[in-house]
Amino acid sequence: MSARGPRIHDAAPLHVTGAARYIDDIPVPGDCLHLAFGLSHEARGVITRADLSKVRAAPGVIDVITAAHLPFDNDVSPAAHDEPLLAKGEVFYHGQPIFLVIATSHLAARKAARLGDITIEPRPAILTIDDALAAGSRFEAGPVIWTDGDTDAALAAAPRIIEGQFEMGGQEHFYLESQAALALPQENDDMLVHSSTQHPTEIQHKVAEALGVPMHAVRVETRRMGGGFGGKESQGNALAVSCAVAARHTGRPCKMRYDRDDDMVITGKRHDFRIAYRAGVAPDGRLLGVDVTQYARCGWAQDLSLPVADRAMLHADNAYDIPAMRIESHRLKTHTASATAYRGFGGPQGMLGIERLMDHVAHALNLDPTSVRRRNFYAPAGSATPGVTHYGQPVEDFVLDNMVAALEASAAYAARRKAVDDWNAQNDVLKKGLALSPVKFGISFTLTHLNQAGALVHVYQDGSIHLNHGGTEMGQGLFQKVAQVAASVFGVPLETVKITATDTAKVPNTSATAASSGTDLNGMAVKAACDTIKGRIVAFLAESRGVDTAKITFEDGNVQVGDDTLSFAEAAQAAYTNRISLSATGFYKTPKVAWDRLKGRGRPFFYFAYGVSMTEVVIDTLTGENRILRADIVHDAGSSLNPALDIGQVEGGYVQGAGWLTTEELIWDDAGRLRTHAPSTYKIPACSDRPDIFNVALWDAPNPEDTIFRSKAVGEPPFMLGISAFLALSDAVAACGAGYPDLDAPATPERILTAVTRLRQT
Amino acid sequence: MDITFLLNGENVTLRDVDPTRTTLDWLREERGLRGSKEGCNEGDCGACTVMVTDAGGTSALNACILFLPQLHGKTLTTVEGLSGPDGALHPVQEALVTHHGSQCGFCTPGIAVSLAAGQLNGDTAHDDVLAGNLCRCTGYAPIIRAADAAAGAPVPDWLSTLRAGESPAASAEVGPALPDSSDALAHALMERPHATLVAGATDVGLWVTKGLRDLRDVIFLGGATDLQQIEVSDSDIRIGAGVTIAQLLPVMADHHPSFAEMLRRFASTQVRGAATLGGNIANGSPIGDSPPALIALGATLHLRRGDVRRDIRLQDFFIDYGKQDRVAGEFVEAISIPRQSDHLKVYKLSKRFDQDISAVLGAFNIVVEDGIVQSARIAFGGMAGIPKRATHVEQALTGQPWTQASVDAVGPAFAQDFTPMSDMRASAEYRLEAARNMLTRALAEDQGTPVSVLEVTP
To answer: Which of A491, B10, B112, B404 is 20 to 30 Å from B280 at the Cα level?
Structure first.
């Protein structure tokens, strides 16, 4: 088969019938135990007394574990070793796990976990960005500062300065399947862990540390997640380690899944940011110099905050060639849940900063925002003098000019701009807004060594193929896209390829399925493995049949050997009986990337993925209620391996991105308690929130870089297409008065009404 | 308590059931039917959606807050029962596959069941059918494409009995925890005046799944079918306390369409199919959506204790936060709305349009003749510890010309009526300003100005 095609998700028939297994659906032995955490009721303090007698006495409780009972490493952090599984005498956020209940049922464990009598002597809690700045509470010694060109001089010479500051909220992942793990103790102190994780190797690593065994004693398997979005990159560690420790302790299988409220309270979210900007602009809207300060609220532990904040800095330019740029990044430590990876990984925050600035510039100069954006674009691909980013990477694949032009035409930008203005002239209560925003997103892990992947492929003697690689399936369709690669190499129907669960015993030392890298990395690794096996079969057939290797081809389930045709199964059988190895590993590492994160210089990205969206909204100026009426998108997936799955990523990414900036609001109270810890209070987009008209097209052009069949990564980039929804809301507010709307995100009805009121009063 | 129901075509009898065992836990943990998923355990995400059929028809319900006794005498169909006996996919399942309607797949069983229930009921308002099913992956677009594609397909043979509303014969042995009439309920409640009454369990369910409360003394109202009647006479519309929001909606559409439009956004299909009007009132919430509208309509509450009945104005039922005019052993039997020409405007304000608790709910029953406000009954939810009338606003408005100047002039009266609180849904300032602006909206609507973002097309 061809590698390309709009194939259905491999598990779709299982999804729709309820037969797809998630962690909590795996049949377990009858003696399986269930776990729950007892949580801190203070944001910051010292534990002075912990009476767990009522917990122990509760029905169904087998045992209770505290930090003192952990035999080996008490740490579930991804790297910094600063995140104990169970609190060690002090608590650092409201909801921090203090003790672990082992009980005979999930409900019994949850009930008992609330019976802890724990006295915590409160200490002053640092909760907000302002708190942290005042206290100097931060990760790393001071702000990270990157400079490119002489920004001060550029600003001093600029005819006009535009400056502002705004806040953007964090975001709860709200994967539909909450975090879950299951550990099955094996003989000889080995442990088998099923985990809903994007990073099985890290689970393996943390479980091994916690059990005091080498990594070879721990096997982690992940068939699928019920959504991840970055929230299962590091946040599953606590559950998997708990299960393993409890399983070792009791000798029985142990399962843990967070109740939704626990999940939302305990686990990290997208970092909320404050961004301040100061830009020197020419009369035509060209940026002459930009000075940006990014404040990231990282929570109590480091987790992945440093690379997240780096990526925000790396996307502070988005699509614009800015002659001089200075970026200051503050990574603030607060007594709140540790913020973590979330689709885009800081990129959305950095990008929203510059898009907000673009919008502000266009408003201040009374210019069309799209024209201002276009005027600042990097030089198009093929230019003799490509633009260079503020971190020193040439932008050689820039395609947004053509993509924007295509979208302006297909979505009738000019005509609809006029229609919106006409509507606003005629309507006092309801105002419309329209905005277009581009996306340029860098593809590769910025920690260069993570850009590697492995695969394991077996061809059995009946011609069936077993496929395994280090990537994990969280709904994005990775497994299907990679299976398409394997099937195309062997020229067999997709059904010939068996997709199997990610397994640390099959492919070791994997990177997280993150940074949109899944298909790029694992597709190439699988292709390498398949090519190896295919090469052996070709060599064997060429020699045994005296046919030139060039005349041996694999297609339509057959192997053509000169004038003879064998079925693929016959070829496999022949190879087997002639003692040809039909199993191979594959390996891939991304070329060209090199990055010095301390200096902020180099080539962190193999290539860029592009997209552009246009959104039309309507707001009610009496209540701030608002709705997305229409969204038009053109998105660059390179030569798409699977247009159906890729469009799914684009549609879903846009709606999730728009949700971040509209209805999804995280609220902490003055005591550091998250008040929005359930879907009753935290509102992700519902069905009717998607745009009434929703046109998504792929920009079908091969990736100039040599990626898997010239496709491009598509997991994260479309998320940032949702920025145009926020800008459209700002545009609608701008129709209410002369001032700049100065909207914070998320643009809830309340924030919109506040902005409308402010504009109408000035 | 012993109960009987049909599960995917199979008769099930359960002895001595724990009255607050949820259907979802039972399906997953005891029956090994793990297709229905737990996403939130509070009825807000729909991953656990199942179909329940009784004489009244088929409803999609949230299994996570559906107690087993609520199934007594009914037919339960789970995602495992959607496919045919030979494994043939239901048309909505087929369409979800073809149109790429699943990504991670965790919400998908619930979506399939909701769509199948919608298809069975001939309901093609997909946004409403799916308002209670959250999907985080797809952005819903492919799900709607699937829903459109499957809408015209015939209901599969194997589900045709659901359309007929067939249910197993309820076992004769109906205990005092499951009274079969309001008389039996009145009697049971005299015996156990402190029992927790459970109608749809869309609120009490959370006491159990989130509050982890052990409710031992429970009386289920679902068997008292005489509480589920709606009678429209020349003088009033009398709604039994056990009438679900789903059943109330079409009646209000005939008499007070703005009320009905609010009910369309009342929680979700799954919650409306279970939640009762009596429950929405009797739980005394300051943010229940029906009381402000009913108060604005001048509704009367019919209370009963044993054989003693009394009628009070609904507005008087709510005394203070958490305190209602209801004594132990007393229950809500019905609500009556006086027949009147329709002037009611109901505005529900929330962060999200569907399945969201109101920050402010305003109900305006303003009668204008010759440009002068003849009478005004205005009530709000979310503005005080109880659903409450805006008496100062009403007084200031009555007798005034129905103009923006009058609306502006009565603005300060809102602060006399209400001192709202700030919480995660909205600030006090926003609540007050939005409430004031709703009066402007009511005027603008009368003047023919477009005021609803939901009615704007691209």
So the answer is: B112
